[in-house]
Amino acid sequence: MTEDRNFDDIAHKFVKNIYGSGKGEIRQAVVWQDLESILSRLGESSPLDILDAGGGLAQLSQQIAHRGHKVTLCDLSSQMLELAEKDIEEAGLLPQYRFVHAPAQEIAQHVDKSFDLMLFHAVMEWLADPREALDVVLSQVKPGGVASVMFYNQNGLLFKNLICGNLTHVEEGMPHRKRFKLQPQKGLQPEDVYAWIEEAGFTILGKSGVRTFHDYMKDTRTGEFTFEQVVAMEQKLCRQEPFISLGRYIHVYAQRPLEP
């Protein structure tokens, strides 16, 4: 039986290679645009309650906390939580955070309130039962609240292997290559995730492709561009097809309707 991935063994490597990379910068730049739109929709006249489920280093929720909001950060990895707490303390945001050492699927056992905004980013692809976890965290969103969900896109994984010429690997069903420890074992089909969100009673507000072309660039040492141009172009193209569906990740956000 497949188990949920715990990053205790490679937490420092994960932070350096994922959060501290150009790929991480693009991811933050694209998703932050969506989060600003969400915060505007929710209104910020008073502090919002935020759940960062499986939040790792909490980089995006820290940006939200800087705007005066309260965050509950939950993660399965004690090492990731320690790194996050140190980073949050250095940012002067510790009073606005509550830390919960638990898997996202158990968050309901540790909180006694619902949330205005729930972040669930790059977690499902590491889980044995992604839908179960998604249902749990969606249930923590209050009526009128918004869920922000990002997942590893199976279509993007397929396309990457195709253009790299890994056709035998594709024909074999793209089994996980153990040497790629920071790459999820499998992606999720976008249509499945959208359906799960809607079946939970949410209305999808928007979708964005995350890294819609950067990872497919043949050689980033050639061509006429700067990294700033890459980020700006990713932000420009990410909310239109076919680029949404080509993203290595997809960010989808949805609102729970107000109760009658």
From TrEMBL:
**UniProt EC number:** 2.1.1.-
Entries under Pfam families matching the protein: Methyltransf_11
Signal peptide extent: none
Kindly indicate whether the keyword S-adenosyl-L-methionine belongs to this entry: yes
An example GO biological process term is:
methylation
Catalyzed reactions: 5-carboxymethoxyuridine(34) in tRNA + S-adenosyl-L-methionine = 5-methoxycarbonylmethoxyuridine(34) in tRNA + S-adenosyl-L-homocysteine
Which CDD domains does the record associate with it?
Answer: AdoMet_MTases
Key words, A-Z: Methyltransferase, S-adenosyl-L-methionine, Transferase, tRNA processing
Q: What is this protein called?
A: tRNA 5-carboxymethoxyuridine methyltransferase
Q: Which gene encodes it?
A: cmoM
